[in-house]
Amino acid sequence: MPPSGVKAARPAHRCTECGYASAKWVGRCPECQAWGTLQEAGPPAAALRSVAAGPVTAPARPIGQVELTGARAVPTGIPEFDRVLGGGLVPGAVVLVAGEPGVGKSTLLLEVAHRVAAGNGPTLVVSGEESAAQVRLRAERIGALHDRLYLAAETELSAVLAHVEQVAPSLLVLDSVQTVRSPAVDGTDGGATQVRAVATALTAVAKSRGMTTILVGHVTKDGAIAGPRSLEHLVDVVVSFDGERHSTLRLVRATKNRFGPADEIGCFEIGDGGVVGVPDPSHLFVSRRTAAVPGSCVTVTMEGSRPLLAEVQALVATSAGGGSPRRAVSGLDSQRVAMVNAVVERRGGVRLADADVFAASVGGVRIAEPAADLALALAIASASRDTPLPEGMVALGEVGLSGEIRRVGGTGRRLAEAARQGYRLALVPPDAGPAPKGIRLMEVPDLGAALSSLFPG
């Protein structure tokens, strides 16, 4: 019992998903909005009134005298993966690679470990989901066998650290962080507490040894990285591995990168020989046909610093039922498609109120930027009129609610990529800049002018 007049310390409650702390229990976490995740964590630690000065690890120096050798990226030998990472793997960096099961994460990282072992030093792959024999079979299939590539199957953190001490690798790949547990920490296997403890311990080891560490993370049904959101704050780089299960295309994106841009994209194709980089992926997102068809328009999207050609398709059909017409979207932002539909009907004079409208991208690519608005509007108008657009044409521009066509960033690089791919005509907003060699610009101030120039009469 506490002394008379002294208030007892109230127990603290912590969210198992995001780590949010609260003095009392609530049913829904105010931070991540998850239900039933706050658990009692004991009384909160008392704040320190004063902290005495202690020893420093290294004296402070002028910023110009700080050496850069330990922060330079080392290429992995896979150009598409290096592009996403910002040039390669930085010694001591911790990279989190997340993706759905079966998308190809383990295969790609096994190839990365093989390349690093062949060029930079010993690498260690620790598998908590598969046996060593299963990983060996995959390595033989993709040709990733090397004398300096070490393999272990462990689920205990202490065993993983023992392997690190024995092998002294330059790269550690842990597949996956949810399957490794620390006996010194309470919590269910794969839970928030365990995942945070494992990631914290491996991060400390990676920084002290200058060892690059790649952690594989599971993805939940809603697309979020399993485990606490604080795991993304512990690591230096967060990479997402996306791809449709029925497609061979895989896209690798960096959502966080302390050593380079966080908006680059790498393109891969998965096959019997493993995951292979695609240095020129524009042809994957454009249909190859001998004649033009209605409802199809090509645009140029920007993924980081890389321009990619992408095709937008639309189908307008008479609604069969007497209820509300259908609106189906694949690979595009449904809210933006609905807005463009309304602008096409109101400002372009295309009747869509009693028609089913379907819109999709080609090749499984996801298009979310406004630069594809004009191409989508033209594809819808073309499908409604059942008249194809001119061959060899691309469309760039954001469509406003009043029908105006606005400029988008990186227009010069977009047009240069279109010209390189053989396109000869580009519909662009006014003042788009000079035209690259081999392509003619048609400036259109609004959607009505664009439709009048393409569909006269």
Automatic annotation (TrEMBL):
Region described as Lon-protease-like: spans on this chain: 356-457
SUPFAM superfamilies: P-loop containing nucleoside triphosphate hydrolases, Ribosomal protein S5 domain 2-like
Binding-site positions, ATP: G99, E100, P101, G102, V103, G104, K105, S106
UniProt keyword Disulfide bond, yes or no: no
GO cellular component: cytosol
MF terms (GO), sorted A to Z: ATP binding; ATP-dependent DNA damage sensor activity; damaged DNA binding; hydrolase activity; zinc ion binding
Record keywords, A-Z: ATP-binding, DNA damage, DNA repair, DNA-binding, Hydrolase, Metal-binding, Nucleotide-binding, Stress response, Zinc, Zinc-finger
InterPro entries associated with the record: AAA+_ATPase (IPR003593), DNA_repair_RadA (IPR004504), P-loop_NTPase (IPR027417), RecA_ATP-bd (IPR020588), Ribosomal_Su5_D2-typ_SF (IPR020568), Ribsml_uS5_D2-typ_fold_subgr (IPR014721), Rubredoxin_2 (IPR041166)
Motif (RadA KNRFG motif) on chain: 256-260
PROSITE patterns associated with the record: RECA_2
Protein origin, superkingdom: Bacteria
A biological process term (GO) from this entry: recombinational repair
Transmembrane spans: none
Domain RecA family profile: 70-219
Entry keyword Ribosomal protein: no
Function: DNA-dependent ATPase involved in processing of recombination intermediates, plays a role in repairing DNA breaks. Stimulates the branch migration of RecA-mediated strand transfer reactions, allowing the 3' invading strand to extend heteroduplex DNA faster. Binds ssDNA in the presence of ADP but not other nucleotides, has ATPase activity that is stimulated by ssDNA and various branched DNA structures, but inhibited by SSB. Does not have RecA's homology-searching function.
UniProt free text on domains: The middle region has homology to RecA with ATPase motifs including the RadA KNRFG motif, while the C-terminus is homologous to Lon protease.
Similarity comment text for this entry: Belongs to the RecA family. RadA subfamily.
Name of the featured protein: DNA repair protein RadA
Native source species: Geodermatophilus dictyosporus
Gene it is expressed from: radA
